[in-house]
Amino acid sequence: MRQPFIAGNWKMNLDRASSVALVVQLAELVAESSGEVEIGVCPPACYLEAVGSVVIGSEIGLGAQNMYHEESGAFTGELSAAMLLDLGCKYVILGHSERRQLFGETDASINEKLKAALAAGLTPIVCVGETLEEREFGQTESIVETQFEGSFSGIEEVDMLKCVIAYEPVWAIGTGKVATPDQAEAVHAHLRKVMTNQYNSEIAEQIRIQYGGSVKPGNAEELLSQKNVDGALVGGASLKADDFAAIIAAAKSSK
Ligand code: PGA
Predict the structure, then answer these.
(1) Within 13 Å, how many C-alpha atoms sit on residue 250's CB side?
(2) Pocket around ligand 1 at a 6 A CB cut-off
């Protein structure tokens, strides 16, 4: 049984006071979730410490939205995996489509980050997903397969087991256009097949694959009840404590 994992990606939103207020409210709402659902929040890096001081000892884990693969040195503006750990992070999102599209991240650079995150003991959430054009050309499966193979190149079985994958169709992110449960399930099942080929079925069955892209309280239950959908990476709806808590509740009732 894969434990559902709901993570909130706050992106470049909120300020210090509203970040703390949001997580305080969320901590109250999920206080009784008793470990059935794994919960994470990924605030902007500058608020990791403030948010971390609220979630410490709670059901909510702290995550970062990005990192750099080097350990230290002349890399202006970057943060290392060790720095994120030092701030109390458990998770790091890697290869989000916004980072791929706006900041030039490639499967190769994501692979370097993934190796550094694993070496430091962070749980990586590695994002894959096709654009609308790629979907219309029937390339969805080959695109996510290529992204998976490139991002996870050289990752040993023991390390693979520590990873989480997020399938996020680019056309569904922040657009209100959610993938249908069938569309999500088909890609998740395909990714599991790819992992079976690359590793083995035992490993493939254990890895959690989150869906991301316009997940809301109103569509969460149907998406999360799909066999191969093991949670959600939530953007917009994670900025409202009630909505995010409702998605967590949907994860609980859908399994
Ligand atoms: P969204 O973002 O829920 O606002 O569509 C999801 C994501 O980018 O992780």
Answers:
(1) 23
(2) 9, 168, 173-174, 212-215, 233-237
Report which secondary-structure segment, H or E, holds 209: strand 208-212
Domains of the chain are 5-254 (3.20.20.70)
User: Ligand 1 atom closest to Cα of 212?
Assistant: 6
**Ligand 1: distance of its center to the CA of 90 in Å?**
20
Measured distance CA(27)–CA(21) in Å, rounded:
10
Q: Is the pTM of this model over 0.90?
A: yes
Query: 207-242, pLDDT tens digit by residue?
Result: 999 999 999 999 999 999 999 999 999 999 999 999
Q: Express each pLDDT in 6-16 by its tens digit.
A: 999 999 999 99
Whether 88 and 49 have beta carbons less than 8 Å apart is answered as yes
Degrees to nearest 5, angle at CA 45 with 39 and 49? 75
Contacts of residues 130-133 at CB distance under 8 Å and 24 or more positions apart, as own/partner, are 130/169, 130/170, 130/171, 131/170, 131/171, 132/170, 132/171
Closest CA to 164 of 107, 222, 232: 232
